[in-house]
Structures are given as C-alpha cells and as structure tokens.
Specification:
It is built from 15 helices and 15 strands. It has 483 residues and is an alpha/beta fold. Bound molecules: adenosine-5'-triphosphate. The site of adenosine-5'-triphosphate (ATP) has 15 residues, from helix 6 and helix 12.
C-alpha cells in the first residue's frame, strides 16, 4: 500500500512504528480540525465572494452564452415581451419545418394562418453570417400563484459561442425580429376602416376584413412604371433607419390622378396587399371640423394607408366659414368645416412613431383643380399618372382575363390602342369571360369584341375631336356636354 503521507513515515523498529502511527493519527486529526475552522472562517467572511469567483471561473470556462426570450415576463408580461417571442416563433417557423423532428401548429395573434413551430423541448439550429446558433423551446418553472393557478411560461433559448456574442446580440437578434415581423405582416389579415361622426366626436369604424385580390402582378400598367412604384414602396416600408437619420416622420404621400376607370382604387388595394398595411378610408365630407380631422388622423396606427379618394370633390375644402346668425339670442354660430389649411396642418402634423410607416394616398380625376399647396412635393411625394390603356397594359389584361399571352389579333389591337382613349376598366369589361367562351375559341371572340370597341372609340374620337375626349378623361365635361 502506498503511504498516504510518505514524508511522515520512518522506516524503523515495530515499537517505533507504533509510536509513529499514533503521532500520524493525531497530526491528521489536528489538520482536519484546523482545516474545518479555516473553512468556516473563510466561508463566513468570504463565502459570497468565493462563490461569485467560482461561478465566474466556471462560466469563463463555458464557451457558450444563452439568452432567453420568454412568452411573458414574470411580472405579468407586456406586449413588447410577447412581440419578441411571437417574432421569434414566426421567424423559426421556416427553419423548423425542415429540421425539427416534432412540430406543432400554433395560432399567433393577428396572423390568419397557423404558424409551425418546434415542439416543447425541441431545438433547431440557424446560420447567420457564417455563425451557427441554436434555438430551443423550453418551459420555465411554475410561475403561478394561488390566485392565478399554475402557469408555466414558455421561452425560446438562444445559444451561441461566446466569441460571437457581439454579432449575435446585435445583428442577428435584430435580423430575427425584423424577419419575424415581416413574415407575420405578410400573413396578417388586413382590415378596412372608415370614419363617421356623431355628437360625441369623430371616430374610425371597422368595416370589414380587407380581402381585395388586387396585386401589382395583375395590375395593368407599363412594367417600368410598375417596378418603380414597387421599388419606392419597398424602400419606404424598410425606411425606419433612413427616416430616423434624416429626422423626418416616417410617412409618404402618393397622389394618383387620371380618368375614372384607370385603376386608382385598384392600385391602392395592390399597395395595401404589397405592404400588408390596413386601409383607413377617410370620407372628408363626414368630418365636421379641423379639430375632428386632427383627432381622426392622430388615431391612425403605424403600418396603415390613409386614403382620401376624389380629393377634388370629396369636400369643398375652402377657407370660408359659414355664418349663421339666426339664433334667437343673436349670437353668431360658426359652422366650421374642414378647411384647406386645416387639412394641410393635419397632413403636416401627422407623424409616425418609429416602429412603422404611414402612407397617404389621395386620388383625383381632376388634378388641375387641386390647390398646389396640397399636392406640392413634401406633402404628396410621388405623383402617379394613371393613364388610358396602352398596349402593355392590354397584354396584362389579356393574360389575366383570357390567359393568353400572344395572338395574331394583338397587332391590330396595338394599332387601335394608339388612336383611342379607352380605360383599362373598359378593356377589362370587354374581355371579361361570360359563359366560358374564351376557353372555347382561344380568346378570339373577346379580342374581336375589343377590336370593335376600339374602332368605335377611334371613330368617336375623330368625330367629336380629341379635345372633348381629353376633357372627359379629366372629368371636365360640363353638364349637358356629350359624355
Ligand atoms: N390598371 C388596371 N389594372 C387592372 N384592372 C383595372 C385597371 N384599371 C381598372 N381596372 C379594372 O376596372 C375596375 C375599375 O377600376 P378602379 O375602380 O380601380 O378605377 P378608378 O381609377 O379608381 O376609377 P374611379 O376614379 O371611378 O374611382 C377595377 O375593378 C378593375 O377590375
């Protein structure tokens, strides 16, 4: 057997050996007592400090860091907490469907389709900028109490190597939040609101879920112009940092102008669908005062489109006040309507918190009738003319309505479109399938019908003069003039 304390042993006689064993026992006992006393002294004086050092040491040896994102904070939670959790859930849904062995379908607030996520206790990995991170869905210890009962918060734990801390905590977490919110937004059920007034004030009414099928892909318009608008909208919706940097509210104004039936309302629906923004349709004539207008506009949340259609005639925006002094006590009662300056002030005062943008879209058939102050750049940043149907727009409509991309009659139609003034609505109405005939004859029936409509329009244009048609286009025909 190896001597546990070799330096104390003396290789001699058995008597000596007995003596030395006794001494050894005493020495061990004394050492133990001293050690215990020392230990007690140390812990009573430096216990907390030692524990902290120990923890530091252990954690410095652990090459991983973990961050938890809980569903609700322990103090009852708040929307911010839930938002982060929901954004992670939505972000991970695309990763986990390919990786996780067990999945569950969750419904997430405001999203109209179930989101696939990892099951409790499961995990998935993700890669960003060449760095691998691991996500894991866990359940916290019971947070309930006698009043609220048992409650176990779920959390997503994000684990990564310590050396990547800066990148993960900064860039990666931001990327997850933004992507998650963007995915959620694209699945959001859009809503349509309209305003009304009562003696209690002006307010927004939920009208219905906004399910308009219009998309930019099906909008009949020149490709280049369409791409420019899409690009502008995307830049706007991703412009948080830009607007913050230049110190301007995150909002943008669009003016859509052109003859009736050129697709202004359709374009607004396509914009809402592209950005997943709710639509707030403002009926100016139902607003009784500038103050009421201000209250309404201030209640429009971020990521929404404020629409004022036919701005030229939706309100007699004047700077006048109607006076009514018929009251018995002869006091002057002022009936205040929305004035132009009131509207301008509201538009200018409309600001957006930095967590989402606001789009304003005004439409008109008669752009020349608008006050230049209303449409000046800065208020209406982008002016979009909606025009009569050109050949490119026609091909889009033929594709949508007849499912044909080429036809020998296209050449004739192109020629006629150059000399006519028909709106995309006119063309759409002519091409609309009735009784499946387009299927039977490859669209020829409808194309011929369109040719006849175009020929008539060209003839009419020649006989009544282009000027009259132009007037009609701009909505300038006087009562009694040919329509
Ligand atoms: N550019 C277009 N692309 C696709 N469809 C269109 C287009 N323009 C018009 N249409 C069709 O015509 C119908 C009427 O169009 P829309 O209401 O968008 O026109 P508008 O310019 O807003 O008219 P108004 O000024 O009378 O309100 C739409 O439902 C759509 O089917």
């Amino acid at each position: 057997m190896v001597n546990p304390l070799p330096f104390m042993g003396h290789q001699g006689s058995p008597g000596h050996e007995g003596m030395s064993q006794m001494g050894l026992g005493m020495a061990i006992a004394a050492t133990m007592v001293v050690l215990t006393m020392f230990q007690q002294f140390l812990f009573s004086h430096f216990g907390g400090y030692l524990e902290r050092c120990l923890r530091k040491l252990v954690s410095s040896m652990d090459p991983y860091v973990q961050i938890r994102f809980t569903e609700e904070s322990t103090d009852g939670g708040g929307p911010k907490n839930y938002e982060a959790y929901a954004a992670i859930e939505t972000y991970l849904s695309s990763k986990c469907s390919a990786q996780a062995p067990r999945l569950k379908a969750n419904s997430v607030r405001d999203i109209n389709a179930p989101v696939l996520c990892v099951d409790d206790g499961e995990g998935v990995s993700d890669e960003f900028n060449g760095v691998t991170v691991w996500w894991h869905l866990g359940k916290e210890k019971d947070q309930g109490d006698i009043y609220r009962g048992s409650r176990r918060n779920r959390y997503y734990a994000l684990t990564f190597r310590k050396k990547n801390r800066k990148m993960v905590v900064g860039e990666y977490v931001r990327h997850v939040m933004e992507e998650g919110k963007a995915v959620a937004a694209s699945h959001r059920q859009l809503k349509l609101y309209s305003n009304s007034s009562s003696e209690h004030g002006a307010y927004w009414n939920y009208i219905m879920d906004f399910d308009h099928p219009a998309k930019f892909e099906t909008l009949a318009m020149e490709k280049e112009k369409k791409e420019e608008i899409i690009d502008d909208l995307y830049r706007f919706s991703a412009g948080r940092d830009y607007y913050r940097r230049i110190g301007k509210p995150w909002k943008r104004g669009y003016l859509l102008y052109g003859p009736p039936g050129t697709g202004k309302s359709t374009m607004i629906a396509a914009m809402a669908n592209l950005l997943s923004y709710d639509v707030y349709d403002l009926e100016l004539t139902a607003v009784l005062s500038n103050a009421a207008l201000k209250r309404l506009l201030n209640r429009i949340p971020c990521n929404s489109i404020l629409v004022i259609e036919d701005i030229d005639c939706s309100s007699k925006i004047t700077n006048q006040r109607e006076m009514n002094n018929q009251d018995e006590d002869k006091t002057v009662k002022i009936l205040e309507k929305v004035t132009l300056s009131g509207l301008l002030n509201c538009i200018d005062g409309l600001f957006s918190a930095n967590d989402g943008g606001r789009l304003m879209v005004f439409t008109t058939n008669n752009v020349d009738a608008l006050d230049s102050a209303l449409v000046r750049r800065g208020r209406m940043d982008k002016h979009i003319p909606m025009t009569y149907c050109g050949f490119e727009a026609f091909t889009m409509l033929a594709k949508n309505y007849l499912r044909i991309e080429e036809h020998e009659l296209f050449g004739r139609i192109e020629e006629l479109l150059k000399g006519s003034s028909v709106t995309p609505a006119d063309v759409a109405e002519t091409l609309i399938e009735r009784g499946g005939k387009a299927e039977d004859c490859g669209g020829e029936y409808y194309l011929n019908k369109l040719i006849r409509v175009l020929e008539e329009n060209c003839e009419a244009k020649k006989s009544i003069g282009g000027e009259m048609l132009e007037k009609k286009g701009k909505g300038e025909l006087e009562n009694g003039e040919c329509n």
